[in-house]
Design goal:
4 copies of one chain form a homotetramer.
Chain A (H helix, E strand, L loop, with lengths): L1 E4 L5 H13 L3 E6 L4 E6 L16 E5 L19 E3 L2 E3 L5 E5 L6 H14 L3 E3 L17 H13 L4 E4 L6 H7 L2 E4 L7 H10 L3 E4 L6 H13 L5 E5 L16 H9 L4 E3 L1 H5 L5 H11 L3 E5 L17 H17 L13
Parallel strand pairs in A: 7-8, 7-14, 8-9, 9-10, 10-11, 11-12, 12-13
Antiparallel strand pairs in A: 1-3, 1-4, 2-3, 5-6
Helix pairs in contact in A: 2-3, 2-10, 5-6, 9-10
């Protein structure tokens, strides 16, 4: 930790700072420059991270030298993590190709969509049963009935399933049906929920919040990891931007940044990032080319009657064409997509 | 609802749109311009709001003509709402002056701070017992013990108390101790939690999320209102901005915008909006001058040892000076601050 | 300047850093913490500011300890600056109340508007003759003819005039007619133009760019100051935000932040900040209450036929009402507005 | 153009709107919904685009149905444009691989860098002679001497050269030396400069402004096109974001969006978008995979002594490795990079 004192800090203030640092059990290393005095604090930074050092009179700024996350950091785990989602490997060269409708709908439709995306090469099936909707009057999902449909359809087509959990009281129940628990963007800093999924031991798909920095995202992952659950997959799904031509602003650089800072896999979600079907293929290719560990796409066979987010869904045929393109990008980077038309064993 | 068709929409597409609209039980009013065809949908917009009309082939854009919130709208309730917080009126000309430390700390300190802010004219006391912290390793609050301290200190100094609730499982428990439940910025779209506080019948202080539009904020209020709880106070506390010289970007215009669109009271929180004590007085004056229904300020008597957010706390003497300034602004706008040094009855 | 080395920087890298610093003529002060090595550079920071120290192998971050602007800084000039605009004092307790239409229009209309705003207490008249328009097909201003009208109307109503200059080739010509030269938001980092107005010796009204930090704004002021022109007035006019309910996001905290960092006056422009007449009064009051040195408002007597920005103009009667409110705020802060109905001498 | 009237618009207001529309020479088509009245305006939208219709009493919103740019639009020119930069084709399947140092420096260094990037497959050489620097005290470029060096080195290595122009008075002079004129991000809405380069008939590389929407970018292109210069290449170089871990936020989706809306080529600049060499390769691959018509990268052989932007430069060897990756992505999309080690004829 480095303290930068205000220009014009008095000797009395400097003395108080040093006294305060030493009282906390650290050594202070003074460096007096031409204009400013700097105090290096020698010792275990973690013990100091949450001390309000910036509130000490005369202190202008406090600079940590270590990242605030530990378990999520690349330093703690230099190798890429590989997360096992009920038999599907994700990370360290293995790609998660997640597809399915926004909401779980009626069983026949789910079956048709699952069959189609499986044939195109998807290896994880998605669908929301508990939907966080901006409006209290919008469709909120089928609940546990939806989970049953999702589980059944996933089993039939040999794909593990991922679904969103929004309520800490439901984590255990959702975990009975789902192979992976999704934390949505709006809940990325719902620390109560993060703590619960951290206890569940199910893999967690953690979506980046709309105004979360990469540091914030890794801190939220740290919540899950610190509960003893190491199976976290991150997801870039766009952040809030000023150009409303797209639903969000797809921050593709965050993929590379996360991979420098952390060992956790990170996938991209071009469906939510853009909100526009015609932009999804370009962003899916971009995400994979940037090095993402997978792609999450919403697919629906009749978007004009979808229960939610119909306008951003790809048709199965569009998804199939996209998967053809993605296969090429994956090979270029020496990553392999699951074969299409082949059953997972 | 207005549908704008794509330029070059075919007659077949136009016919399908009209058919689709009529099948939903609405009348369609066609307007063919020089370049585009527009379809006005005649009927109850609410029933259509969540239909994926934009996913219909040939539809370029869907424009609602009514706001998506109902109970929160000015149309539904032309008069300003007045919220009663255990005897303190907020809204419709009555100001909420909320002050206290970020976290509930030991009883003696709480007592000293409460006495000071009460003397300066605060009428609601604050303190967090369940703290949503970015880091799992940071102080998470005193929990129920903190609530007891807060309640006791509030009673002693004749101020109702407000505290944050973060877990739907705790709402009933927190509501036993607190006069008002705070939903923090990170939980503004935690719809599960909003639903629970909507059922609680305690007044709710709903803080704006860091990337929430004013529309999003009012939709979250609608969640609470739609559960039958009409006592919602909104709070502007800064949104995410690109200039990290301040912690957030204080959106003072949102105060006036909310007051046009909604009848709900809205207060400002310059402590979180700026994160810098030296900017708090200017922003507090600005918020009140813009028409806010109150000001929320964090106050601590020894910021350098505060359990959380010490660096942004005002000292009691600074708060007292600020309250003198705010009294002048309030009078200018014909609003009245509680007298200082006087007990509430 | 402080260099923070990468964790794991080798001894060879550390030696190279020190060598490099010493070769530049500075002393290096090494501080080896538990996890990181920090190098304090002792000497005149200005000489190092533009050296690419961050590109040296092993350097993770470079932290300046002084602000990058000098002439604009509060340190260089502890007293508030007072700018004389052809007899109207701005700054250090004196308020600039700037009003007028977006574009200069026909003489009769200009005369009517000037008379009205003068009667309400405006002390500087505005109007654009060279308009930076997003579209090449939109009205681009009356050019030099507009300047003549503006000058004449200003003289008749005893108000100095401010108008935008957009072309470095026109600075001398515009300066013949105008008492103050405006640099618009889109040109805030047009350094060629800043240099020209810096040479002109006319007061400069420098508007903040839509994505400029406060630091960027002060650096642009430094361009003008460094040419020998000390008469710069800054203007907060909103930055780009994610909520398109308002045209821009009015950053009222920047007023207080600028006043801490700099001695230059700063005014607010709620017309461009909000783009909505119904929000202008609240934001004007907020800006003044935050401590701004003046308010800039667009006024037009028939917005529905205005040549530009009609939808955001206040009517003269609305401006008059606003000025009544602002007079109250000004008095509260011991600042004085020019009397209405009285001629300036 | 569609006018949406306020709910509660009076019959008198509706009549005035229709009268106003008809007085402008258009037909009005009234559509009265359950809650709102909508007025469709039939006729040539261009003639109405700049009329302040939103300022008419009773009008809540004005919705154009056509994009505000014409020459830049895909409708006006359904085929991709191909821009000839002194023999190098850009667009319609041909990639611009632009590389070189941020600033033009001494001839020997320029020669070494040009030789290296040419060998790696670059086909256009870059270097700034007039640098728009945030600080007036920073290196401002070598001026005309720099242009001479750039031209000479480009010729020697058979690459056309691109360089930034910042002053409308210099356009003709810069155009004598440069094969393509660059408009930097800070000047994207410097309409005076856009008009001058529009007259010059040199190809123009137009970089997106830091807070420009895609619509703004296309409007700035329209300025150039409307002067009779059809040779515009757009460049996505990152927009302002809230996460300062990267210099800007690389908006890769804008590539696909521009290609839908416009026929103009668009390239990406991952150097400025990220400001971090370690993220440049991932973003370069992402941009090309999204469909960009080229990649612009800053390369320097000794970043720690570079005159500007050293910390974000790639070394020649890093650039060479990146070009190997980009060749694979280009082939995947059936686009072809120039061969490395081969002279252009």
């Amino acid at each position: 930790m480095i303290l930068i004192l205000r220009s014009g800090a008095t000797q009395e203030q400097i003395d108080h700072v040093i006294e305060h640092v030493e009282a906390l059990g650290f050594a202070a290393h003074l460096s007096q420059g031409t204009h400013r005095t700097i105090v290096g604090i020698i010792g275990d930074e973690e013990r100091l991270r949450h001390a309000p050092l910036k509130a000490i009179a005369g202190v202008a700024d406090v600079l940590p030298v270590l990242p605030p996350y530990k378990l999520a950091s690349r330093e703690a785990h230099p190798q890429d993590s590989l997360v096992d989602v009920s038999g599907v490997a994700v990370g360290d060269g293995h790609l998660a190709m997640i597809a399915g409708p926004c909401s779980v709908e009626e069983p026949d439709r789910m079956d048709r969509i699952a069959e189609a995306v499986r044939a195109s090469g998807a290896n994880i099936f998605r669908g929301g049963a508990f939907k966080p909707r901006t409006s209290p009057y919008a469709f909120q999902g089928l609940g546990e009935d939806g989970l049953k449909i999702l589980q059944q359809v996933g089993k039939k087509h040999a794909m593990p399933v991922v679904t969103e959990v929004t309520d800490p009281r439901n984590v255990a129940m959702v975990a009975e049906y789902a192979d992976m628990l999704q934390i949505g963007a709006r809940n990325m800093q719902n620390f109560v929920l993060l703590t619960e999924v951290g206890k569940s031991q199910r893999p967690v798909l953690l979506k980046r919040g709309m105004s979360a920095t990469v540091n914030d995202l890794l801190m939220s992952a740290e919540y899950v990891l610190s509960q003893g659950n190491p199976r976290v997959i991150l997801c870039e799904r766009g952040v809030k931007g000023f150009d409303n031509a797209t639903r969000n602003l797809f921050d593709v650089a965050s993929v590379a940044l996360v991979q420098q800072l952390s060992h956790l896999p990170i996938i991209v979600d071009p469906s939510h990032a853009t909100g526009r079907p015609e932009l999804i293929p370009a962003c899916a290719r971009a995400g994979l080319a940037a090095g993402a560990d997978g792609v999450h796409v919403e697919v629906h066979d009749c978007p004009e009657v979808a229960k939610s987010d119909g306008p951003q869904a790809l048709l199965p045929a569009q998804y199939d064409e996209l998967m053809g393109q993605l296969r090429g990008v994956a090979e270029l980077l020496n990553k392999k997509l699951p074969d299409s038309q082949l059953s997972r064993t």
